[in-house]
Design goal:
The structure holds two protein chains of two kinds. By secondary structure, chain A is an alpha+beta fold. Chain A has 20 helices and 40 strands. Chain A is elongated. Chain B is an alpha+beta fold. In chain B, 42% of the residues lie in helices and 19% in strands. Chain B has twelve helices and nine strands. In chain B, β6 and β7 form a beta hairpin. The radius of gyration of chain B is 42 Å and the shape is rod-shaped. The two termini of chain B are 82 Å apart. Classes of the chains: A alpha+beta, B alpha+beta. At the A-B interface, α7, α10, α12, α13 and β26 of A face α5, β1, β4, β5 and α8 of B.
């Protein structure tokens, strides 16, 4: 909402207010000043007279002018076609800062130029408010303009415009009359706004109107109008709001809409046949005022006469029935509609008009009456209208005013403030609200005030929030802390960060294609009813595909060794769960000059997942990895499902070559775990067992087995045989080669033996080792080497 | 004779280069076939007096040689150690930052920090799903049916009832209902939210919020001011000031927007704060009585305050990030710039 300083100064004494002070007062009262347009050219924009004007020798469109600016005569090169000797023009002197450029002394095609002759466009005036002449040439001032004067006042730019942010509850202030009342409260000054009353004798109207009960329409006929320019006062206000002046009739319609917030339409009566109706079942084309043809569908509201559509209700009138220079008689239409309807049609047709914007705000129920009265009054005064007919309405509006009790003690309790009763009620007076005892009657344009708390807000905003003390709530002791799942998320993040893995955050909404790569899904994915684009239409069920995209993004920018994780909710048609996804690529670390390189592979991921689960409290014995050869994202022989006991937690493995080709990523390892499930499982507490005081013994064995025998099987045999004496196992060499047979492998394992209760003697060790080798031989057909 | 041996032996010990040579010298002079042993054997031919005197001298020489050898040995060991250390000299300037650590995503970093501030004040932390019912997202938050936010154009609807939540207020409304009979309530709700906006430098169809809600007897708006001042000071520095400006939200009355003194210029005015000295960081207000009533709470007995902040906005402000899309592009080089404890 724009507010002109000159306009409001007609009503208020603002002598003591600088522009900043006005902006501050508006902002702290709830109308945030989002911008100030001042057209302040710091005395560098003056009136000049063109004394000479000759063609530039090196150009077919430039002129060399001598311009008198009172204190000196300047040589200025001008490119405008309309420049001529004797004109009073706007001169931007050297040093003047225009919106697009700063004027400097320069040479234009070899000719010195000290300043610029300006068009209004160059001064930053919106083009929509200018005529083609004004847009295409320099501005020519009236001949009585005084040479050397600051130019602003000759072109109506001696004003300051404040751009107000208006919150949806206060859209009443889009009506200037309501804005003035609000300003009276803010500046604590009096204002008296009188709505004109029509005093001429009214003629019985031949018109009829019709619409459903939830809508309203009125029509009033006036004859013998004279089309001419509207008065200076109306034109200058329209200009402030960037509304182009057309003629007195159209200007009056727009002016009244500005004052009252009530859009209205004026038809040429000759083209309206019979009654005015609001219709919602029209289907077909319609040519609107802007000359465009629109496709109207059922549900759009239209204004009809007996024969044809006249306008798109609340949005734009029709070309056919518009007021022209030949118009003699007019019909004034004032109507109200459901704002949803106007919004939907305006969006679908992609038309935003002054009217459609206003109809989407709260309109004072009394505004339709005010608007009619203003229009008739102005048509008589400004268009010499003679015959005024009765207004015909579809219904009589019922105006029910709200009353609220204002208890200043309750107010203080609610706000924590210490205002006196007088202070509190003084605000009601400033707002011009009617007070009877402690009851406040709310005027109809303030439909935002419905409960006592709304009044509290009026009081505190107008007395100022700096009067609000700063206190803290009384603390209620609580046993609240972070929910378990979030604690787990934090622990996981810390663990993964420590391991050099970077946290990422990707979008929840993905494409159909990305959705097709989801891992471990149960139900169908949810699609949005109204997606913005195909890329963002499905709610994801798995994070991994998004992380693969991130990996591709980084690798395509030559970022190497990307390790990423993300923790996020995923959702399908039945439920949501929280998941952790990890992608490891390149090297975990690499110090190449000393061959200290660890490449991210299946085993790095296995180590990571195992360590993480153990740290989270799941004993190593409970963690089960089961080969999964059938996971389409993963390499069939480098992928396992993760279980805690019997509970499925997730999957990790090396990326399938076709998937890495598809996403254009390097060979990487992937994991995705269900944290919701994990969190539901019991975790082990830290249990302390004393470190054994007895010597541990290491024994190495080398065995030759079939390639198909896994380490897991070997480990299991050794552990079952050695029971609690086996402290740990470590594979320190694996060998495959021709000389041992192509179907065999050799594995060297170091066994650490230790007892909690005694030092192991040679005999015990010897017999245990023999026992182990025998079992390996019999159960796994191993050869001991 | 003895003097000659002494001179010769000391000379040789001095010339030793290593332990092996030193051992050889030791055997040579002090061994069974050494010159001193020879002298001792010749003693037989001497008188008792002479025996006594020469014997004493031989022993003195022996112990002199022994101690000299040991001294030399210590010296040689020291030299050898020095040599070894010398050999182990490395190029200290070689780069060694290959044990890299990861870090939190900047939005999670801010979220965590905010959560901790409120946990320390005794707040609960609630996280409830992102797919929400229209009921909790709009209806309970006092947002009327014909409000533009409820339009298909602004909200990602799934069907007539379900949608992707547009604000974490939805979580508050659920929490309010669940705890209506278990007051007081002190909770913060962080999480992702979604709006049907085209992505650009300042808009994202997905972003993060954190909202807080306190409901109990005698909660005042001044308590809200104190709470938010505390938060602002913990987030942006001890000398922070805050300012309330009247605003409008459907679920609070009165409603305010909250500015903090600009952390970039300290309130003097700069480009970031558009010369105002203030930066808007959150919206807040007293819970609207209708909202309490809809959740089944007696609004004449209990009152409450609520506040909500954009985590993305705070992160952008604090770190000077100019484009919200960076947070979701996940360029590793961008993510790594938040690798600090701050």
């Amino acid at each position: 909402m724009l507010v002109s300083r000159k306009y409001i100064e007609q009503y208020f004494n603002l002598e003591n207010y600088t522009n900043d002070a006005i902006a501050e007062a508006l902002t702290t009262s709830g109308f945030e000043v989002e911008g100030v347009i001042a057209y302040d050219f710091k005395n560098k924009l003056v009136v000049g007279e063109v004394l000479t004007c000759e063609k530039h020798p090196d150009s077919d469109h430039l002129h060399i002018c001598t311009v008198d600016v009172a204190i000196e005569q300047l040589q200025i090169v001008c490119g405008a076609k309309n420049v001529a000797v004797g004109q009073k023009v706007i001169v931007a002197l050297v040093g003047c800062e225009l919106p697009q450029l700063k004027i400097t002394k320069s040479k234009v095609r070899g000719i010195e130029s000290s300043g610029m002759l300006c068009s209004l466009v160059e001064l930053g005036v919106p083009e929509s408010t200018l005529t083609d002449e004004q847009k295409n040439g320099i501005e020519i001032l009236k001949s009585d303009a005084i040479i050397g004067d600051i130019a602003n006042k000759y072109i109506g730019l001696d004003d300051v415009i404040f751009e107000l942010g208006v919150t949806p509850n206060r859209s009443d202030v889009v009506a200037l009359n309501n804005l003035l009342k609000e300003l009276a409260a803010i500046f604590n000054q009096q204002i008296n706004i009188e709505i004109p009353t029509v005093t001429t004798n009214l003629i019985d109207t031949p018109l009829k109107v019709a619409c459903s009960e939830n809508r309203y329409i009125s029509a009033q006929k006036i004859e013998n109008i004279t089309i001419k320019d509207s008065s200076e006062h109306i034109q200058s206000l329209l200009k402030t709001y960037n509304i182009k002046s057309i003629n007195n009739i159209v200007d009056i319609s727009n002016y009244v809409a500005l004052l009252t917030g009530q859009p209205n339409h004026i038809y040429d009566a000759e083209f309206v046949k019979g009654s005015l109706r609001i219709v919602d079942d029209y289907e077909g084309e319609f040519v609107a005022l802007d000359g465009n043809t629109y496709n109207i569908v059922k549900g759009d509201l239209m204004i009809f006469d007996d024969e044809k559509p006249l306008g798109i209700a609340g949005i734009m009138g029709g070309e056919y029935s518009k007021v022209t220079e030949n118009t003699k008689n007019v019909i004034i239409e004032v109507a109200n509609f459901e704002r949803m309807k106007i919004r939907n049609t305006s969006r679908r047709l992609n038309i935003t008009s002054e009217s459609s914007i206003k109809y989407q705000k709260n309109i004072d129920p009394q505004a339709s009456d005010y608007a009619s009265r203003y229009i008739v009054d102005l048509l008589i005064k400004e268009a010499d209208a003679k015959n005024v007919y009765n207004k015909i309405e579809s219904s009589q509006k019922q105006i029910n005013l709200t009353t609220l009790k204002l208890d200043y003690q309750r107010l203080n309790n609610h706000l924590g403030s210490h205002f006196s009763k007088e202070e509190v009620f003084s605000v009601m007076k400033r707002l011009d609200f009617e007070i009877k005892n402690d009851e406040i009657t709310i005027p109809s344009y303030r439909s935002d005030i419905t409960v006592a708390e709304d009044l509290y807000e009026e009081v505190i905003r107008l007395l100022g929030y700096d009067h609000l003390p700063t206190t803290l709530p009384t603390v209620s002791a609580s046993n609240k802390s972070l929910p378990l799942i979030q604690k787990m998320q934090r622990n996981i993040s810390q663990f993964l960060n420590k391991n050099g893995i970077q946290q990422a955050m990707t979008y929840t909404l993905i494409s159909d294609e990305l959705n097709s790569f989801a891992l471990n899904v149960k139900e169908d994915a949810i699609s949005l009813a109204s997606p913005l684009s195909d890329d963002r239409k499905i709610i994801r069920r798995s994070i991994l595909p998004s992380l693969l995209e991130v990996l591709a993004y980084n690798e395509s920018r030559s970022v190497e060794n990307c390790s990423l994780y993300e923790i996020s909710d995923v959702t399908d048609k039945e439920s949501s769960e929280n998941r952790l996804s990890i992608v490891l690529s390149g090297n975990k670390y690499a110090n190449k000059w000393n061959n200290h390189v660890v490449t991210n592979d299946f085993y790095v991921m296995k180590s990571l997942i195992t360590q993480m689960l153990v740290q989270l409290g799941y004993d190593k014995q409970r963690i089960v990895y089961q080969a999964n050869t059938n996971q389409s994202l993963m390499h069939p022989y480098q992928c396992v499902d993760v279980y805690i006991g019997r509970d499925f937690i997730g999957t990790f493995g090396t990326i399938h070559p076709t998937i890495s080709k598809k996403f254009i990523v390097s060979k990487c390892v992937l994991a995705e775990l269900n944290l919701t499930k994990l969190e539901s499982l019991k975790v082990g507490k830290i249990k302390y067992t004393p470190v054994s005081r007895y010597q541990s013994v290491k024994r190495d064995i080398a065995i030759l087995v079939d390639k198909s025998v896994t380490y897991g099987a070997i480990k299991s045999v050794i552990e079952k045989t050695g029971k609690s004496l086996i402290k740990s196992l470590e594979v320190f060499d694996i060998y495959e080669g021709e000389n041992i047979g192509s179907d065999k492998k050799s594995m060297a394992i170091r066994i650490t033996l230790q007892s909690q209760t005694e030092t192991l003697d040679n005999h015990t060790i010897q017999s245990l080792m023999e026992n182990i080798t025998t079992t390996l031989t019999t159960q796994l057909n191993a050869q001991i080497r | 004779m003895l003097q000659k041996i002494q001179l010769e032996a000391l000379e040789k010990i001095m010339q030793c280069q290593n332990n092996t040579q030193l051992n050889e010298i030791k055997v040579l002079y002090l061994g069974k076939k050494g010159p001193l042993q020879e002298v001792m054997q010749q003693l037989k031919t001497l008188s008792v007096e002479e025996k006594k005197e020469v014997g004493k001298k031989v022993n003195e020489l022996k112990s002199l040689l022994e101690s000299t050898i040991e001294t030399k040995r210590i010296q040689l060991n020291e030299i050898a150690l020095q040599q070894q250390l010398e050999n182990e000299k490395i190029d200290l300037t070689l780069e060694a930052d290959y044990y890299e650590q990861g870090n939190l995503h900047p939005l999670i970093k801010i979220q965590t920090e905010l959560e901790d501030i409120f946990i320390a004040m005794g707040y609960d932390v609630a996280k409830i799903g992102e797919v929400e019912l229209d009921l909790y997202n709009f209806e309970r938050a006092n947002i009327p049916h014909d409000h533009p936010a409820r339009d298909m154009q602004d909200t990602f609807y799934i069907d007539d009832e379900k949608l992707l939540r547009t604000h974490t207020t939805a979580v508050q409304m659920r929490y309010l209902e669940e705890h209506a009979n278990n007051l007081p309530i002190q909770v913060v709700c962080p999480g992702k939210v979604y709006r049907r906006d085209d992505d650009d430098a300042t808009h994202s169809h997905q972003f993060m919020q954190i909202e807080g809600l306190v409901v109990k007897e005698n909660v005042k708006m001044s308590d809200l001011k104190g709470t938010l001042l505390l938060m602002a000071q913990k987030m942006f520095g001890e000398n922070q000031k805050i300012r309330f400006r009247p605003s409008y939200f459907q679920f609070t009355e009165p409603s305010v927007e909250v500015d903090v003194s600009c952390p970039f210029c300290g309130g003097k005015g700069c480009n970031v704060c558009k010369q105002t000295g203030w930066i808007e960081i959150l919206g807040a207000g007293m819970v609207h009585p209708k909202v309490l009533e809809m959740a089944g709470i007696d609004s004449t007995k209990y009152s409450g305050f609520a506040f909500g902040a954009g985590i993305d906005r705070i992160a952008m402000l604090r770190y000077g990030v100019e484009d919200i899309r960076h947070f979701f592009t996940n360029d590793i080089r961008f993510l790594k710039s938040f690798n600090r404890f701050d």
